[in-house]
Amino acid sequence: MKKNTALMLLAILGVLSLPNVFAEELVELDEVRVVAKEEAKTNGEIKKSRRVIQDELIADTKDLVRYTTDVGIADSGRHNKGFAMRGVEGNRVGINIDGVSLPDSEENSLYARYGNFNSSRVQIDPELVTGIDIMRGADSFAQGSGALGGGVSYRTVVADDIVQMGNRFGGLFRSGYATKNNEWTNTVGAAYKDEKWEAVGLYSYRRGHELKSLGNGADISGAARGVPDPSHHRNHNYLAKLSYFINDNHRISLNYTGQNHENLTDERSYTFVGWRRTLDTTERDNLNVAYEYFPSNGLLGYLKLDYDWQKITVGAINLKGLYRTDGVEDLDDIFDRRMKNDFHRINLRLDSSPLESRWGTHNLSLRTAYSQREFKNINKDIYLFGELDQALYISAVQKPVRTQNIYLLLQDKIMWNEQLSSDVGVRYDFTKLTPRASNVYCQFCDQVSSASTTFQNLSGSFGLDYQINPTWKAGYHISSGYRIPTATEMYFTFLNAAGNWLANPNLKAERSLNQSVALAAENEQGNFALQLYRTNYKDFLYERETAGWRLHTNCDFRCSSPYYRTLFQQAVNIDRAKISGLEVRGMLNLHHWVAAIPQGISVMGALGYSKGKLYGTSESLLSIQPVKVILGAGYDDPNDRWGLQARWTYLGQKKGKDAQILTYYYDQSGGTSTYPFLNRSAVLFDMYGFAKIGKHTTLRAGVYNLFNRKYHTWDSLRGINLQSTTNTVDREGKGLERFYAPGRNYAFSVEIKF
């Protein structure tokens, strides 16, 4: 093992030493190049450029937040449910691709216990994107429902990402490998751009296995299993764009992105009778047709009319069976569970030209859109009886739901003078949810009303920035957010002697109000940002377990009472919650502080801390991230020929007082207790870098967790199900071994652009 590690380290050092080998070939590149890096704004937004995504070897959402404070992952074993920020997670953090929101995860505690459904949020492959914007803090003004605690926006590849400067045509080939999950990634693309036409096509294929663990548990079956369940994923990603300038003022475009992801898991940690293998699938298609108008003069500065279509199917195919006495597997059941979303939207955007007045320069914007989303569940279950006989049952667990939305947005970006600027906007949304008749068998659908439910939401955003001097800037930002309840939260019903789940069509939309003050500085010496924030949540929605009385349907004269006491699960709005915290980020270009230090050497640091409180209950918000500190040093060649970065990360522990959960017992009395699985603090060290060979080839390599630290992340532990047949552990905690993060691991990539 030590020999292999040494060879890996030598390989990385070899990559980083290539600039010296090829120095003569690169001598003509003596001008200083400006490279797009990660950008942090005073309103809490972080913009990761395509260059940062490539240099940091970002392959998934976990890699995306690796060096970002106050942002985590909603991790639940097989299922990744999106992001966690500002103390909330999952559906409370919006995700969109090119401005089109991805659907919510539809799940309740009943089906979460068995893992038969795929409750993942759709994940966008970084190979498809030119940039990722992480907005921390309420952002429904820009993103609509779901951006309660913030949002993540993916912007897809454009021709300029492939066509090199001075050329009309460009090609791309990139191949990479990561040892943490034995994953290969291969991407090919081509693009063309001239005065009239712009076209780009890209295909990426990613295949790999389960994420490795540094745990040393036993390779057994059941909840005590100490190694990760074997899995194999195959992800296909597509992109095609074509645009044409009719003349200098008019452009039409057609854009498509899609994905087909499969992950087959042999669930050896499954705790129910027999065995199970599950194929989780995600299919996504996005189409956009747009017309743009660029006036040469006049009041109107820009017009865009476009149509979006999105079709997403999230599914899980479960293969189940028992073991024969000789250990051979018998296949007894095939459960195919799918959640389907079909989305249509038409959009109009009008931007004004800069309007000069005695009260400053104004840039006005008006946007409006009408959208309709159809959601439905289809289950196809096959029961096998021997080798020849089988029975097929097609059903649904709830009614289909149609969601219609119309919104109107007004925004004014104002430059009052050379120092003072502001950004003010207001948005009105009208949303209507209508349960529809199911065309397949649905056991409890007749228990749910078909009446529509409407929501009206007013969102706003206001920002004020003051440029103290050319270096320092101060800012204040306030914004609001909301989240419409999901179809499952409002309409799912299940009645059984073992448990009851009740619909609640009277739910309110969750609301949030985020305020932040910031102080930032930036010049050739470096940059610095300090942000203090507070987010208040209202009508927070939770699934609550309450004791109640239910009528005996078969009660006769022998019953002592026509009612019996039982437990009900139901989504309800609780009072309110509060999150507050701070973030500090900074970077110093050391050459500008000490002239003897070569140009390109820098140091950086970041710290994130937050705390929160749920009112009306003694529970905690488990999604609040523990303290995180990042320190780094690096060198970027002024001619952009090579670079090397080192990162030191401190992951704080989750304290018991901040991890209180609600519990119920068989005597139906409730209380709170400390979440049983808390992470310890850990210190990690990473190194990564790049080297260019000539004008067309770039090599990148990284080593992560260099000192092989054994640690849990809080995100992985809080996703463990306490009562479930999947993603759970035994009472002795032996199964926690499989939840350890990977040990020392490596990533490599080679990129050729021509």
TrEMBL record:
One of its GO terms (molecular function) is siderophore uptake transmembrane transporter activity. It is a multi-pass membrane protein. CDD domains: ligand_gated_channel (cd01347). Keywords: Cell outer membrane, Membrane, Receptor, Repeat, Signal, TonB box, Transmembrane, Transmembrane beta strand, Transport. Residues 247-706 form the TonB-dependent receptor-like beta-barrel domain. A motif (TonB C-terminal box) lies at residues 737-754. GO terms for biological process: siderophore transmembrane transport. Residues 49-150 form the TonB-dependent receptor plug domain. It comes from the Bacteria. Its main location: membrane. It is found in: Cell outer membrane. InterPro entries: Beta-barrel_TonB, Beta-barrel_TonB_sf, Plug_dom, Plug_dom_sf, TonB-dep_rcpt-like, TonB_Hb/transfer/lactofer_rcpt, TonB_rcpt_CS. GO terms for cellular component: cell outer membrane. Residues 1-23 form the signal peptide. PANTHER family: HEMOGLOBIN AND HEMOGLOBIN-HAPTOGLOBIN-BINDING PROTEIN 1-RELATED, TONB-DEPENDENT OUTER MEMBRANE RECEPTOR. Belongs to the TonB-dependent receptor family. Hemoglobin/haptoglobin binding protein subfamily. This is Ligand-gated channel protein. It comes from Bibersteinia trehalosi Y31.
